[in-house]
Structure formats: structure tokens, C-alpha cells
Amino acid sequence: MNEELIQEIESKTDDSTVETAQVSMTTWLIFLISDKKYAVRSCDVVEIISDLSVYKLPFMPKYVEGVLNRRGDPFTVINPNVILQEDPNLPPPEKSLFMIFNRSDDQLSLHISDILLFTSIEDTNLKLILDSSEESFFLGTVTYDGEDIPILNPNAFELKLRKDCGNI
């Protein structure tokens, strides 16, 4: 009897399979530098720390604020206002928030103003600059909440620092 029920159910079952579209998603950190929004992939960031002292270094480019001490390790602090706004006299963001980049070969941090959110965004909302080089500070934009937000290239900050300081 059970076998007959199973056969009847199987004969009435539609054998067609339903395909679901795989949507590729990336998690982004959206943050402020002064009053402008920027984004980086969350996997490019190790930590965001606040209220640490920055120790000045002599003879450095104006965009280098100095170094901070994170658990005994020195991290170079970059003032992105000087680079992104192309004005060497712009002060660093008022808030003491430092984004530590996930780097195997360098210890680099970016002085930011505020963290807005971490969010997963479909890769279809990503617009890359196809002819951007490694030294380009912008990789493209990501659309979030109807707004195109520039994506920063963490590698460009290190390359600029190495170039300006003689490939140290």
C-alpha cells in the first residue's frame, strides 16, 4: 500500500527544476572624510580605532600626519583631505577615527571623520573605472540608497607614500 502511494505521488510530482539566480554580494564600509561619503570593501579593513595620539614625523609629506601606536606596532597615519581635495593646507578630520587597512606588507591607516554603516550590496550596483591604474585613488563607485559613492583604493595611498618618500 505504501509503495503504491509513493508511486502515485512521484507520478504527480513535476520533475522540472526551478533555477534560482545567484546574486553576488560584497560587504562595504561606507564612511565619511570631512562631509563626503566614501566606500571600501570591508575585507580591506582590519579595525577602526579612535582617540589615539598621533606622533608627528619630521620631513614627511603634508598628507602624512605621523604614526600611531596600535598595540606596540606603529601605523602611518594618512590625512586623506590633503590628497583627495588636492589642497596641502586642509586639516585632518576633526574626529580621531583611524581606519586600519588589512595589509600584509605595510602598516597604514587613514584618518576618517565617521563610520556610517557596513552593508552588503549587489555587485550589479558596482561601477568600476576600467582604465584605472594601481595609483588611482578611486576604483569606481558603488550605488547605495540611490547615491553613487566613490570607492577608495587603499593600495594607492601606500604607493603614493612609497613614491614620495623614496620607496622606503
Quick description:
The protein has 168 residues and is an alpha+beta fold. The chain has helices at residues 2-12, 80-84, 154-164; strands at residues 25-33, 36-41, 45-50, 54-55, 64-70, 73-78, 97-101, 108-112, 114-122, 126-128, 138-144, 147-152. The chain has a 6-stranded mixed sheet with strand order 3-7-8-6-5-4, covered by helices on one side.
The description of the largest β-sheet is: 6 strands, mixed
Oligomer: single chain
Low-confidence stretches: none
Total strand count, please? 12
Overall residue-averaged pLDDT value: 85
State the helicity in percent bands.
Answer: 10-25%
Instruction: Output the strand order for the largest sheet.
Output: 3-7-8-6-5-4
Strand content is 35-45%
Shape: elongated
Q: Provide the succession of SSEs.
A: HEEEEEEHEEEEEEH
Structural class: alpha+beta
Please report the number of helical segments. 3
How would you explain this protein's 3D organization?
The protein has 168 residues and is of the alpha+beta class. Helices cover 16% and strands 42% of the residues. The protein contains 3 helices and 12 strands; from the N terminus they run αββββββαββββββα. It has helices at residues 2-12, 80-84, 154-164; strands at residues 25-33, 36-41, 45-50, 54-55, 64-70, 73-78, 97-101, 108-112, 114-122, 126-128, 138-144, 147-152. The chain has a 6-stranded mixed beta sheet, covered by helices on one side. It has a 3-stranded antiparallel beta sheet with strand order 2-1-9, with no helix packed on it. The longest helix is centred in the first third of the chain and has 11 residues, at 2-12.
